[in-house]
Write a structure and sequence with these properties.
The complex is a heterotrimer of chains A (about 120), B (about 100) and C (about 100). Chain A is α/β, with parallel strands linked by helices and about 120 residues long. Chain A has helices at about 20-35, 65-70, 85-90, 105-115; strands at about 10-15, 40-45, 80-85, 105, 120. Chain A has a single domain (about 5-120), classed as Hypothetical Protein Ychn, Chain: A. Chain A contains four helices and five strands. In chain A, strands 4-3-2-1-5 form a five-stranded parallel β-sheet, with helices on both faces. Chain B is about 50% helix and about 0% strand. The termini of chain B are far apart. With about 100 residues, chain B is mostly helical. Chain B has helices spanning about 20-30, 35-55, 60-70, 75-85, 90-95. The model of chain B has no long low-confidence stretch (mean pLDDT about 95). Chain C has one domain: DsrEFH-like (Hypothetical Protein Ychn, Chain: A, 3-Layer(aba) Sandwich), CATH 3.40.1260. Chain C has four helices and five strands; from the N terminus they run E-H-E-H-E-H-E-H-E. Chain C has helices at about 15-20, 45-50, 60-65, 80-90, and strands at about 5, 25-30, 55-60, 75-80, 95. The chains are: A alpha/beta (about 120), B mainly alpha (about 100), C alpha/beta (about 100). The interface of A and C includes residues 45, 47 and 84 of A.
Amino acid sequence: MTAAARKSILVVSRHAHPGSSLPRSALDTALAAAAFDQPVALLFQGEGVLQLLSEQDSRAAGVRNLRKVLDSLPLYEIETLHVDAAAAAAFGLDRDALPAGAEWLDAAGIRALLARHDHVLGF
Amino acid sequence: MLPISAFDPEGFLRELQDWTPEVAEQIAAGENIHLTPAHWEILELLRAYYQRFDSSPAMRPLVKWVAQQLGPDKGRSIYLLSLFPGSPAKLGSKIAGLPKPDNCL
Amino acid sequence: MLLHTLSRSPAHSALRDCLAVLGPDDALLLLGDGVYAALAGSEAAELLAASGAALFVLDADAALAGVRERLLPGATVVDDDGFVALSERYSRQLAWY
């Protein structure tokens, strides 16, 4: 695939896990795009920030610990997780609760992020 | 020897806790692979990956993970293909008793 | 320059999340239960108008919901061809649901 064919993709994930299956679909989409060598970024907006809680104990429910899967994203060349700072604050989450390398964005920052991607996909 | 009912139609172990090194030998034999210490080194890394990331890796992250853990000589597709021909991520996960990788495209 | 589509009722977090990023260069097409956000005099409609975004409502869904005659004056009603035309004008789309 030539460099010219690469399109930057932003996946916007804004539902809570595991009540909705959309977070899992968002993650699968990001991983699939990364497997095709497309530059992918992820934004967790609104309730989506709750996916990032690290204490998920999902064994009994038979679903994945989504935060653990998200921690593997750098191995897929997806380096930065973008977090809706206002939503995180509204849910009482501070920086210690979320991944260390996450980039916290205000509304203007989120608009800029949306503006600089070739494709945006909402989940 | 685990009965055939312990495996799904593609030969992946249904229950992670059924896995033992003997089970790995059984699955590998079915794939015509004789497990050597070089295989075991990768199988252990696959199991560690699953513990840490709650998923089986696709090929690219597997290569990167092996490179991080064992150095660049082993963190290469060609090396992994020599141990697990065809699809190292899929075959390695199968022998390590892990679920089939989701993103084996 | 994004075409947003909103298909959830105004009580859902989709509206709030969309409003957080909706800008004056953008367009918003309401469809499904999203059409209720364009009810004239509603809180949602005021927030949408304040965003400065161009506002569109899918005709069939507005008729089905019974809001076609009660839409915010600034909203433009479009049919399926209008939806296609909007998709052509805005190369990037983001669905809120």
